[in-house]
Amino acid sequence: MTTARRPASLLLAMAGAFLLPAIGSAAEPVRVMSFNIRYGSANDGENAWPLRREFVAETIRAFAPDLLGTQETLAFQRDELSARLPGYAVFAAGRDDGREAGEMMAIYYRTDRFEKLDGGHFWLSETPDEAGSKSWDSSLPRMCTWLKLRDKRPDGAGVFWAFNTHFDHRGPKARAESATLIRRKIAAIAGDGPALLTGDFNAAPGSKPYQNLFAATDAAGPALRDSYQIKHPDGEPGESAGTAGGFRRGDRGERRIDWIAFTPGWTIKEAAIDRTNRDGRTPSDHDPVTAVLERVEAATAED
């Protein structure tokens, strides 16, 4: 009895099938970092920006984010970080005039992975389209920068939106209203699409801004989830949850005011407070916070 010989093309196709990823296999995760780098013109003595900018860049490179949101970033800091972060593009505008003046909520993204489709800025005020505007009891103009990105990887995150912000440090009403505005703006800009939010919120879990941002049901916009709270509901054993203070490891306290949030359409794989230090000295007066997220269908995004 003889056996019919299969065509070589069929054999190659059968062999290749074993090398292809299984249907439904995990998507390529997105590594996200939020980092208040402390404005570079501050009179910080031994912690002045020129003495720590390399430390800041090294801390970022060590985590190797795909997406980075920075706060308190002046134009020269934006450029100096860009020079130290090869492979990243940056999108930013100054909060004072919407151009170069004032602190920026810069978003850096890896150009080998993401393509910028759209982007913009709005101010945390009753006139959000007016550059430099402020409302309520805000002490300074505050803003949010956003990008619409397409992941170039076929198993990546697809099209999604990234938002980066910094709430006022003095005005409690401004912080509460800003949280509500952010949710409305995410709904207006991203619709039901997947979005990420990074920022320094100058408020701790349980506060009114936190409640407004993470309320499970709210007509203001899509439900957001706190990446760190999901992964560490009881905190990390033996570690402080504080993310801001001075430039020493022991200055942090317990207030976790830097957050990475996400809408349905993602699942959180990892979340952490980056406690990098050298002999107790930290690269900024805030710790960066990090998250690793994976794009999934909204129906399964509650992991």
Automatic annotation (TrEMBL):
InterPro entries per UniProt: CCR4/nocturin_mRNA_transcr, Endo/exonu/phosph_ase_sf, Endo/exonuclease/phosphatase
Key words of the record: Signal
Segment forming the signal sequence: 1-26
Pfam families: Exo_endo_phos
Region (Disordered): 228-250
Domain Endonuclease/exonuclease/phosphatase: 33-286
PANTHER family referenced in this protein's UniProt entry, alphabetically: CARBON CATABOLITE REPRESSOR PROTEIN 4 (PTHR12121), ENDONUCLEASE_EXONUCLEASE_PHOSPHATASE DOMAIN-CONTAINING PROTEIN (PTHR12121:SF36)
Protein name as catalogued: Endonuclease/exonuclease/phosphatase domain-containing protein
Lineage, top ranks: Bacteria, Pseudomonadati, Planctomycetota, Planctomycetia, Planctomycetales
